[in-house]
Amino acid sequence: MVLSSSDKSHVKGIFTKMTPNMDSYGAETLERMFMTYPQTKTYFPHFDMQHGSAQIKAHGKKVAAALVEAANHIDDISGTLSKLSDLHAQKLRVDPVNFKLLGQCFLVVVAIHHPSLLTPEVHASLDKFLCTVGSVLTAKYR
Amino acid sequence: MVHWSAEEKQLIATVWGKVNVEECGAEALARLLIVYPWTQRFFDNFGNLSSPTAIIGNPKVRAHGKKVLTSFGEAVKNLENLKATYAKLSELHCEKLHVDPENFRLLGDILIIVLAAHFTKDFTPACQATWQKLVGVVAHALAYKYH
Q1: Is residue B37 in some structural domain?
Q2: H helices then E strands: how many in chain A?
Q3: CA of A119: which chain B residue's CA is closest?
Q4: B83: domain CATH number?
Q5: pTM of the model
Q6: Per-residue pLDDT tens for B47-104?
Q7: How far is B106 from chain A (nearest CA, A)?
Q8: Which biological process terms from the Gene Ontology are attached to this UniProt entry (chain A) (predicted)?
């Protein structure tokens, strides 16, 4: 899967609009993921899972920041996320299927907060971008 | 058999009551064909699917989207009995249409995004969880008779 120049421009465009609220979008993405796909909570047994949890907020902020970094350096996502890729391979070892689940929830959050920006074309590009990020993060698993 | 809590049934009914089946169905199918272009393989006779604009404006896409979502309405009415409700459609999709059941999951995910965009803040996390469960069990019921 290759991100075309219009994919890149769609992703950068929508991320620019989302930047002011990215921290809260990250937290909301995680909250939705934990509720919709309870098996994802197994990676966070130590977390307070209640709505508004400080841990979810903090972790959501981290996840969002990584997505922003990837969008800002969209020509070299593997290079940009290389350290995170090492972390996921060596330490976190989150099963690859879960990145799709996170991606789905992130798209839902975008749809909720920016429905008019999530045109079918932008939706397609954002989905490709999220798949690419997931692939990069699992690339060194074996 | 799938168990539905009273809250889940309420969330399903409330959302479904406000869905414009024709618009939502058309949009969901169009987005499926745009976001996952390989799904176009089932629609060679639909005419022009050459661009997102062509797909969105294609009358066969709209009509088929409406048909698919109307059928989804049967699920909403028969939550306790989905396998029986979809038995014939399942056989059809296997024996005549030859559709990989993975496509039902893809369409379900797209439907969730369309609902989220339509309902925005009203599409609460609990609502999303319930509807993601519903699209999952519908996909499962549609795949059930495959052999």
Answers
A1: yes
A2: 7, 0
A3: B31
A4: 1.10.490.10
A5: 0.93
A6: 999 999 999 999 999 999 999 999 999 999 999 999 999 999 999 999 999 999 999 9
A7: 11
A8: hydrogen peroxide catabolic process
* Contact criterion met (CB < 8 Å) for B30 and A104: no
Name the residue among A69, A66, A74 with its Cα closest to residue A10: A74
Q: What is the mean pLDDT of residues A108-130?
A: 98
**pLDDT 10s digits, A53-75:** 999 999 999 999 999 999 999 99
Query: Per the CB < 8 Å rule, is B35 touching A124?
Result: yes
The closest of A84, A70, A87, A54 to A126, measured between CA atoms, is A70
Instruction: Give the domain CATH number at A121.
Output: 1.10.490.10
B1 domain residue, yes or no: no
Nearest Cβ partner for B35 among A31, A32, A123: A123
Degrees to nearest 5, angle at CA A116 with A18 and B113: 85
A35 touches chain B (CB under 8 A): yes
As for how many domains chain A has, the answer is 1
Look up the domain containing B44 and give its range: 6-143
Instruction: Give the list of residues 6+ apart from residue A129 with CB closer than 8 angstroms, or none.
Output: A3, A7, A11, A70, A71, A74
Domain count for chain B, please give it: 1
Q: In angstroms, how far is CA B95 from the centroid of its own chain?
A: 20
Give the residue numbers spanning the domain of A35: 5-138
ipTM of the complex: 0.89
Residue B1 has pLDDT above 90, yes or no: no
Is B34–A123 a contact, with Cβ atoms under 8 angstroms apart?
yes
Q: How confident is the model at residue A1 (pLDDT cuts 50, 70, 90)?
A: confident
Q: What is the dihedral of CA A10, A16, A21, A23, to 10 degrees?
A: 80
Of B52, B55, B109, the CB nearest to A104: B109
